[in-house]
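Exercise: predict the fold of this chain.
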Amino acid sequence: MTYDTIYWLILGAAFVMTGLAGIPIMLKTEKILPSLLSGSAANLIITGAACWWWSTVFSGSLQTFSRQFGLFGLGVCFVNNEVFAVLRPADHEAQSERIYIQAGPSGRFVTQL
C-alpha cells in the first residue's frame, strides 16, 4: 500500500471511529457532553497517531512541503470530525421533536408540536 492510500484510510477511520465512539453514548445518555468527550478522545488519539506517523514518513529538510501539506489535511480532518461530533447529536434531538408550522384559516402561522 502506498503512503497516500494509508493516509486516506486513516482519515476515513478517524471519521468513522469518532461517530462510533460518540453516537451510542448520545443515544444512551441523551447528553451531549459525554458524547462529545468520547468522540473527541477517539478523534484525538487517531489524529495524533496519524500526525506522528506522517511526520516520520516525511522527515528531512527536502520533504518539508509534503509533511506540512499532510499535517494540514489531518488538521482539517480533525476539525471537521469535531464539528460533525457536535452536529450528529443535535440532529438526533431535532428528529425526536418535530415542529410543524402551517398557515391557519386566518392566514396566520400556527405552530404545532
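Check your answer against the key: Residues 64-96 form the longest helix (33 residues).
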